[in-house]
Amino acid sequence: MDVFDRAQQQEEFFRDKSLAKQLAKTRPAPGKTIALDCEDCGERIPEMRLTVNPEATRCIKCQTAFENKNKFGGAD
Question: What is the DSSP letter of 33?
């Protein structure tokens, strides 16, 4: 196993850990409802967005800004 294989394994580990943490944050505990407010701006997430993506934690505007920020290597 070379340096690139180890780097790929490490990246996969941290990505999976991050995804699991995000899912745990967005999935409601039994008996609780899903998040209805954007985690960034606090505005109500539109019902249509939650219908299409029930695990959404941001409104479209904030999600777009988040993705654009991270597309260029910005931190969360």
Answer: P
